[in-house]
Amino acid sequence: MTPDPFYDGSRLNQTATGNTGPTIQAGRDIRGDIFITRRAKLPVFPIQHEDREPATDPLWVHTPTPQQAALLLASHGLAVILGEPGTGRRTSAIRALQIHLSTLAEPPSLYDLFPDWDDDETPDEEVLPKSAAGHGYLLDATSRPLTAKTASALTSWAGKLHASGGCLVITGTPRDWGEDGRFTVSMRSPDALKIARNYLAGPLKSPDKADWLLADPSRQASRGLFGGAGNPEPTSGVLSGLVTNGVSPSDAVAIARRLKEIPPERLIRALEQQRNAKDPEAKEQAAAEIEQIKDEVREWSQFLEKVLVEPGTRGQDRVMLLAASYLEGAPLEVCIKAATVFDGNGDTASRRYREGRSPRKRMQQVGVDVTEDDKAAFRRRPGLAKSAIRMDWHHWTNERTETTEWIKRITAPGAVAEGWIKQIGLLLLELSRTAAEAPFFSVVQEWAASANSPESKRIEVVTGLLSRAAQTQELAGETHRKMLDWAKGADPLLKSVVALVCSGSYGTIWPHKAFTRLRWILGQDQSNHASDTAATALLTHATESKDGLNRVVQAVDSWLDKTPNHPAGPRAFLTLADPAKAGNVLTSLVTSAQSFPPVRDFLITAWTRTLAHPAVRDRAYSVLLAWAQAVHDGHLDRVFTFELLTDIRNVHTPQDALFHFLYGNPGDEDPALIEARAALANLRACNHTRCDQPDCPLKKNPSAHDGGAAETRETGDTAS
């Protein structure tokens, strides 16, 4: 056997079938090394600088939570920080990891660990990352509450990390962790005002605006981000009170970012006018401008209270604002038509909206600007649209169902807002992060189910929205559940959406979940767009990177091993084995199989189980013909490929597709097929590299039709 430069010399104790030992390296290919294991490692991603910066001085704002968590890490290697969303759990967790690992000579390596396992599975050492000194892991449990078994497994793994110089921090709500309180820390939020000021003075590079928020302008910071002490500027403290004690850390950062967008000269001009103007009316105008700036930073809460909530509010005005908010940038007439169908009464409702004040006048009175080209905008009140959508949903609780159904009506195929579904979908996604009875999934499911074809624009939009939802902390868990339900269901359009989502970033971040959903789709009728898309998704991941190829091969090997009678495994394998569709992948597998037996075993076992499955008989024959043609054209190594097919013939009684391939019909005259038959007829017992693996497929299931070959295999003379 050709020596493998990555092989450390330890005895190989596994093959593709029934392997339970540690991961082994399986040869080389044009993209890297192939590994065959039963289960792939959970995905981990380095924690980025923008996430680590808020947990590092001088941007860090003190709270005792990280120090308490760091003490637990020092004792046990595990800390569980529990608190409500938006309280700063993630930043505190990163701070705790940095504190605990900062004593090492090398900078700590911090990673996000994604809980990519099924509900009926428990993560074990096979899928968890290897222990390493200086490695800290952060696991967010909010997307899936941890069972007692899972918590116990993670606790055990954290102990091994601790022994190796690593650690684990888990974050979640008090409902996401069990009753074991030995490792828990309650999240205490840091000072929101300090967070906002630090962000303005640091990453946002606006230290002067940080002083706008000072509660006491006479007390200037004398060090750190804010420079030396001095006389306060006229603008210092003018916006104090915007960030109160009840503001969450995430909202404090959002306020700082909105404040960054306020032009300083706008505030200075208003202050000067207020102080210097002798005309009372001018002073009032200046005061109103300052209040408008505050309201803008607050996301127009006071303005919307008047428009949406106060007594005397007209329902039609409210719907006008809602329509313009969802359709910002659309022609005003589109917004008006959308508003008129809110209650579904057709022409009667439409006439009512156009009676009395003109619709344009109504739009303007509720804060909507009309542009020169007659489109709805919010130039004078940036951010009003999102705030209006959020306040309307939270205030009018009895009309949430009506609002959801209205959105479905105006975005139906051929309806007035059909072309605006991407913008509306993004607004619904943002709303659903915090909203009760969130409308996002109901609406996008309606959009997908109403598409006229799997290639339609609606399907493309829904795919993008679901991919984004899966990466949104508050919506990830429900996204996983919906996609599994759709993959199992009967709607082919919803299945196509799932397959498309799994082919993208979702499959990179959550590979196990993606492959589970693709397996459900592949297990059903092959002759539909969803199954073809699922197969293409597997191929996409196999061709994009070394890790992707490894994970796909591991998944297919697992399917064939655990459920040999299920059609998903054979269909997936034929996708990887088809030279027309997977030329690079197949070449990589065949090249690795020439020098490393486990990859050869995978190909033999996969072909054997695929040939035995009646659901893929015709497809298997087509791929066998494609192999013969690839050999004939010089794309596959002739000697090795025919030796491999001989091994498959010897371990699998020729029937169905293989029988047709070997013996065929008298009318078959394809040169490549004739060449393959002639070669295989003369390769009864191969003399290639000896294989000493106990699970080698050639040592099992001797063919009844070929006594000589069976006898040779039993004596160990035929290798895998």
Automatic annotation (TrEMBL):
Region described as Disordered: 1-26, 694-720
Name of the protein in its database record: Uncharacterized protein
Compositional bias ranges of the Polar residues kind: 11-23
Biased composition annotated in UniProt, kind: Basic and acidic residues: 711-720
UniProt organism field: Streptomyces thermolineatus
